[in-house]
């Protein structure tokens, strides 16, 4: 039996669960007898082990299982009778003042909050839009050209020219020997032979690159270099070193011409430049659409949080914090980082977890109230959209439909999109133009 539910806080509740001790003993004896039929012990045939030995070996675990089963069943029955939506798992503690012949436990737990979404008609949501123009296509082609760059010795005549005057300039690839000293003494990491980098890419400190520019192959230069206070090398951070650099090899960058061969290198079998530009535009538009969708979804989620006030069960925040910590650990491990002894305090993820839990509760309420569940045709359409960027779209469909968990991920995406469209259909929407570069350089979180 269970006592009336006691309210401890906004979402915290408590009830006392009690049952006769004889019920526990009867069930324990029943399970011990069942266990005895197959129990094994040295010197005895299976099923012939004395009950005292069976009880000594299995009694504690069986009694624990019986108590867990009875308490769990009694709690669930009481929760159903009182129409409680329990969040997480209850905290069960034995009562020391139980009546004689009775076992009593206090079950402390949290319930789901009531979610009342505010008036969406009064919500203002700023959405964004961005266009892909010829300028963006040209920039993308330039990036693709740089990815296919090849280098030639500067000053030596070749099929593509000589690269101009044989002195180091931005864009050139240089190979150098260098040695650095602080107070006349070499320091760890301050020396290298045959070190290669491209001038202007920012891989080296500005003073280092500035000293290299203007050198010819075989020339050396000595210069001071002040390490920043926040430099990653703590031994030299904030100190000034004297470097001597020797330019050993100087190469100029030859970018491929935008011609049929270049188009073929991008997969255009016939080398059609117009088709190449068209394909680049389609891919850019797909990327832009995805980022716009993510940004607009985030704006809608922010609006929902502002218009809806609700208390969140602490147990749900804790559980999601643990999930986020584990996801972070796994992600870092997959990147090759050693995370064995690295702490992942769940409180670091609490703020993000609370936001996620709140949005989950709000979305669940909106979906239920407005029939926004993901329809099968929407799920299929979403997968087909993903499949467009793959060589074999049918394999992509098979990949998702062959695994229920993968399909559930797509259903969740569609459900969120349904909520976003529903909110945008109700709210006051203000559209804002965003520059392509700003959009592509932004980091959004879904």
CATH architecture of the largest domain: Orthogonal Bundle
CATH topology of the largest domain: Trigger factor, domain 2
Query: In angstroms, what is the radius of gyration?
Result: 34 Å
Shape: elongated
Distance between the termini: 46 Å
Mean pLDDT: 91
Number of helices: 12
Per CATH, the superfamily of the largest domain is Trigger factor, C-terminal domain
Q: What structural category arises from helix and sheet content?
A: alpha+beta
Number of strands: 11
- Describe the sheet with the most strands: 5 strands, antiparallel
Please write the string of helix (H) and strand (E) elements: EEHHEEEHEEEHEEHHHHHHHEH
As a percent range, the share of helical residues equals 40-55%
**Strand portion:** 15-25%
Uncertain ranges: none
Q: What is the count of distinct domains?
A: 3
Organism: Massilia soli
Catalytic activity: [protein]-peptidylproline (omega=180) = [protein]-peptidylproline (omega=0)
Protein name: Trigger factor
Domain PPIase FKBP-type: 171-256
């Amino acid at each position: 039996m269970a006592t009336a539910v006691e309210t401890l806080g906004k979402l915290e509740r408590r009830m006392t669960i009690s049952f006769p001790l004889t019920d526990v003993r009867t069930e324990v004896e029943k399970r011990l007898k069942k266990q005895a039929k197959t129990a094994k012990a040295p010197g005895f045939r299976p099923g012939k082990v004395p009950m005292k030995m069976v009880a000594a070996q299995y009694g504690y675990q069986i009694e624990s299982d019986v108590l867990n089963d009875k308490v769990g069943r009694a709690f669930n029955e009481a929760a159903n009778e009182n129409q409680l939506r329990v969040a997480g798992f209850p905290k069960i503690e034995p009562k020391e003042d139980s009546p004689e012949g009775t076992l009593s436990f206090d079950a402390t737990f949290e319930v789901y909050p009531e979610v009342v979404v505010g008036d969406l008609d009064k919500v203002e949501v700023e959405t964004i839009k961005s266009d892909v123009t010829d300028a963006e296509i040209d920039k993308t082609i330039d990036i693709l050209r740089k990815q296919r760059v090849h280098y030639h010795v500067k000053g030596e005549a070749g099929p593509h020219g000589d690269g101009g005057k044989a002195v180091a300039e931005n864009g050139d690839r240089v190979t150098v020997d260098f040695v650095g000293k602080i107070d006349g003494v070499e320091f760890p990491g301050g020396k290298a032979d045959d070190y290669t980098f491209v001038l202007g890419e920012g891989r080296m400190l500005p003073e280092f690159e500035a000293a290299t520019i203007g050198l010819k192959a075989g020339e050396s230069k000595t210069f001071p270099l002040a390490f920043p206070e926040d430099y990653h090398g703590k031994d030299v951070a904030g100190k000034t070193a004297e470097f001597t650099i020797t330019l050993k090899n100087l190469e100029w960058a030859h970018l491929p011409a935008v011609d049929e061969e270049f188009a073929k290198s991008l997969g255009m079998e016939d080398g059609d430049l117009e088709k190449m530009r068209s394909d680049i535009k389609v891919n850019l538009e797909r990327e832009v659409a995805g980022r716009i969708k993510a940004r607009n979804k985030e704006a809608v989620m922010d609006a929902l949080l502002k218009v809806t006030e609700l208390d969140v069960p602490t147990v749900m925040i804790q559980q999601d914090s643990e999930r986020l910590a584990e996801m972070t650990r796994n992600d870092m491990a997959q990147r090759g980082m050693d995370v064995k002894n690295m702490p992942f305090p769940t409180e670091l993820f609490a703020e993000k977890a609370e936001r996620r839990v709140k949005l989950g509760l709000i979305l669940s309420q909106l979906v239920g109230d407005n029939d926004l569940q993901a329809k099968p045709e929407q799920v299929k359409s979403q997968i087909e959209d993903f499949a467009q960027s793959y060589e074999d779209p049918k394999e992509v469909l098979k990949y998702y439909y062959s695994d229920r968990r993968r399909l559930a991920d797509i259903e969740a995406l569609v459900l969120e999109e349904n909520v976003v469209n529903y909110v945008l259909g109700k709210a006051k929407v203000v559209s804002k133009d965003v520059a392509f570069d700003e959009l592509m350089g932004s980091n959004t979180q879904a």
